[in-house]
Amino acid sequence: MTAARREGARQSRASIANRYDAWLRHHRLSAADSLHRVLTNKLSTLMTFMVIGIALALPVGLNVALDNARELSAGWESPSQISLFLEEQLSAAEGQELAAALEQRDDVATVEFVSRQDALAEFSALSGFADVLSSLEDNPLPDLLLVSPASGLAEDAVVTLKGELADREGVAEAVLDMEWLQRLNSIMELSQRLVLALGVLLVFGVVLILGNTIKLAIESRREEIVIVKLVGGSNPFVRRPFLYTGLWYGFGGGLVAALLVSASLWYLGKPVARLAALYSSDFSLDGLGVMGALNLLVLGGLLGLAGAWLAVTRHLAEIEPR
After folding, report:
1. Which residues form the FtsX extracellular domain (predicted)?
2. Which of 178, 136, 308, 137 is nearest to 238 (CA)?
3. Looking at per-residue confidence, does 271 or 120 come out higher?
4. CATH code, 152
């Protein structure tokens, strides 16, 4: 009795191993056969790759552009600074006294006094109009106080501080230098949301495109599917080649998307570098990189699997032997 049980156990283990080998062999055959079928129809495959690639490249390219813009604006970010333009009748000594008084506030870190002569000299150096400015009889620039709020001060508190300083006697105008950067950040945040919404719509479109492509492949092999089911082929057995077909289409579309994004960045790289050089900057566009391209391939493959799964699950049940 014991020997019989042991023999039966060995037979069971052999059967499981054979099933696993058959399952693995069918995966390899399905992958190779589906790849061969995809590559055989060169024109239709290329068109499918291009459609998927363009749909993926558009949101990815816009996201890469936003990342570059965010990286560029990161170099502009600095602690909020309030510029106080003093009234013309205020002397330099009175302006320095006002700076010393403001520096005593708890919500102010530092105050720098910039005389109108220093401001004119700096403006002449940066603008390139030194000859024109030197011909002016009077200096049109007022004295200036650069007020740096205390570190950790909230934005609302900085705005309140600006209003209080604007009301000080001798101050003609107060300007919060970070307002333009806050507007830029708000625009970039809105752009990021728009890109995300566009990406979701296009990803959904890619899944539909792949699903329709797999549906056509299923219809073209309807008789073959019926025969396989007649001889006992299960739904997973029949489904497997079409899933690999969707995977190959997704990989191909992801590869095309990576090439399109990289080519676009390369095409724009030199003009952007020349423009940055005019502003004395060494900024250059960052591309996808190896990991970005691999992530795009993986994304395309997953979308291909998702589209194929939806199409096969829906249409395979409709094909049954009569």
Report:
1. 81-173
2. 308
3. 271
4. 3.30.70.3040
Based on the fold, state whether residues 138 and 38 are members of the same structural domain. no
Residue 16 lies in a domain: no
Strand 144-149 and strand 108-114: the pairing is: antiparallel
More confident residue, 96 or 129: 96
Q: What is the mean pLDDT of the chain?
A: 80
Domain extent at residue 172 = 82-177
Residue 135's pLDDT band (boundaries 50, 70, 90)? low
E strand map for 79-205: 82-86, 108-114, 144-149, 171-176
pLDDT at 255: 94
Whether 235 is covered by a domain: the verdict is yes
- Which domain-ending residue is among 177, 206, 230? 177
Helices 42-74 and 235-278 cross at an angle (nearest 10°) of 40
Query: What is the Cα 200 distance to its own chain's centre?
Result: 13
Average pLDDT over residues 55-76: 81
Task: Tell me how far apart the alpha carbons of residues 204 and 243 are, in angstroms, rounded to a whole number.
Answer: 18
d(CA 199, CA 230): 43
Structurally, the chain folds into a number of domains equal to: 2
What does the alpha-carbon distance between residue 98 and residue 146 come to, in Å, rounded to a whole number?
12
User: Are residues 97 and 167 both part of a single domain?
Assistant: yes
- As a whole number of angstroms, the distance between CA 280 and CA 134 comes to 25
Does 149 share its domain with 47? Answer: no
Whether 5 has a pLDDT exceeding 50, the answer reads no
